[in-house]
Amino acid sequence: MKRQRQRALLELVRGEPLGSQEQIRTRLHGLGFDATQSTISRDLEELGLVRVRDGHGHLRYAELAEGNGSNGHHAPPLDALLREFALEVEVSGNIVLVKTPPGAANAVAQGLDGSSMKGLLGTVAGDDTILAVATSVTAGKSVARALRSMAGIP
Hints:
Layout: H1 2-15, H2 21-30, H3 37-47, E1 49-53, E2 59-63, H4 78-85, E3 88-92, E4 95-99, H5 105-114, E5 120-125, E6 129-134, H6 137-151
Antiparallel strand pairs: 1-2, 3-4, 4-6, 5-6
Helix pairs in contact: 4-5, 4-6
């Protein structure tokens, strides 16, 4: 039952902008899963789901980057994270700056760090800003171009 409930929870979060545990409880109940707030809280933690602000400033639950759920579930690929949360991508030398809504930078940075993007050394994330360090100025331009492309930013 737990596995089925968690699978339903993941599908709900992937498909709907659910911003509270009460909204999740109501939707799960509608699918035939009676869960308490504490059960939902444990499920969210085990699945690696966190509350972030979307591009419109609304809080919603989303998956962290690859492999952070303790039960082995995988989060969306990097391009999906960037499409949903990257607002701007700028480059200065070998530093690429990615702006996100408040609360989303960590999830996107984890996706970047877990990627095998050529020329990317690593990231540092704040609340709504990511500094991605590239191996060179040329790589910085290439990384920025790739991130813009994945995010759908011109």
